[in-house]
Amino acid sequence: MTTVKNIYDYINSVAPYESQEEWDNSGHLVGDFRKEVKKVVMSLDCTKAVVNFAKDINADLVLTHHPLIFGGLKNVMSDTAVYNLINSNIAYLCAHTNFDKAECGINTNLAKLLGLNDTYTMCDGFVLVGSLDSPMSMDDFAEYIEQQLGTAGIRYIDTDKLIKTVAVGGGACSEFMFDALQKADCFVTGDLKYHEMLDASEAGFAVVSAGHFETENLPFLMFKENLEQIFTDVEFVVAPRENPVKTI
Known about the structure:
alpha/beta, single chain, six-stranded mixed beta sheet
């Protein structure tokens, strides 16, 4: 029999919760540690729609990357994700910054999706650097990212230089941009502000803002294969969810 704690302990063994950032709130946030788990719903975020899906398929646990509860809750109102989890007796785990920098985590999987080789980490694991099989123009590389991550409306700074060495930081890693660009021809992350991209352009650097959802969704869901190999008595189901932020 697999319990919530069994799954928590496995995540903790490959992405230690003690490695999460001080401001983070990863871990076991809702439900009974001792609860038996036969079906798990996985999603980047724990939205009301995800919880309703979990309830509809009689799931025992929801596992996400982003924490549903970041700060102290002052109330738990009806028709909220937290309320619906509790009311439906569904447990909830999340693995956020501890999974970002884990060996099997977000950046490792993002690098795999982009076909990077000979990888190594920097910036306490929040950035991973690797090399493409063959150099690419910036325009071709941006199009390649769009195809590999299934994103649209990608934003990037162009360059005449060929892209061979790439640094990736899934989600919001803008604070590591200039450190990463000391080691790579291009930095790919999820969220970059206009002025951050302007600063990179002025410095002659190539950067790609590929979307927070896009740089973390598939890399998180790739963890499903690891879990299925360990917990053979549990069914892991991906919630049918698209990026709520639409682009034309």
